[in-house]
């Protein structure tokens, strides 16, 4: 997204996108971290998809939203397994 802004201001060019990272605790070391081409390509495709959806919504006046139904929260399977393991441990260990 930032690269699109830079391209709009200064013209398209082959440039790297870098982050300057700094530790928050002493000695506050710094490091440059670049964004690889695969990440940039995926980011560009996601931005284009989002902009395309936005254009369609502006033109049609129809905006996506939540479905008009009840959405049910579900436990992740690992939470169920954790609890069942606890139950088994209590039975095997003789605890009630």
UniProtKB/TrEMBL annotation:
<dbReference type="InterPro" id="IPR011604">
    <property type="entry name" value="PDDEXK-like_dom_sf"/>
</dbReference>
<protein>
    <submittedName>
        <fullName>Uncharacterized protein</fullName>
    </submittedName>
</protein>
